[in-house]
Fold this sequence. Notes:
Blueprint: H1 7-23, E1 53-58, H2 62-73, E2 78-84, H3 87-94, E3 100-104, E4 106-107, E5 110-111, H4 112-122, E6 127-132, H5 137-146, E7 150-153, H6 158-167, H7 177-184
Parallel strand pairs: 1-2, 1-3, 3-6, 6-7
Antiparallel strand pairs: 4-5
Amino acid sequence: MSLRLNTYELKWLGEELSRRAKERGREEPERVPERIHGLGGAAGERDPSGPVRRVLLVEDHAVFRQALAVILDQEPDLRVVARAASLSEGVAKASEGFDVAVVDLSMPDGDGADLVARLHAINPKASIVGLSRRRGRDRHARALEAGASEVVRKSDPLEDLISAIKDLPEGELVFLPSVTHAQRAE
Length: 186
């Protein structure tokens, strides 16, 4: 699936999902709607020939978290199994099991790299992708040292994040060109 959303479209999608959930008396959507207008295929259609990677999503901004969950659930080989809005909630949700964690490195209740280290200790075979909104060699290095397999900037194309989630073998470290370029630019 080739998906190109800009920041405004991603924000709109999250706001629309939040509005619909609130109309139903929920804080967040419990599951991805069967079909999202404009995103192509139906959520939940899985490729039976390959494994489905279980994704733990830790992001404090509800709009971004909800929209990203919808987009990832549109991928046939990914399934968001847990969403968390804080570091402590991320640790608690890790007990639900995950193959890949996507962790915002700038959380209001602490450094996302600390959560990366805890998640790596909980599940050393899982891949962990850090999300960063700022360029910063120190932030990226800290996340990688804590056990992140990859760091993707929020300003990078969505395809970079999806590729990082899908292409990382368990426990291996891979660098995307955007991260390497960002580090060289500093």
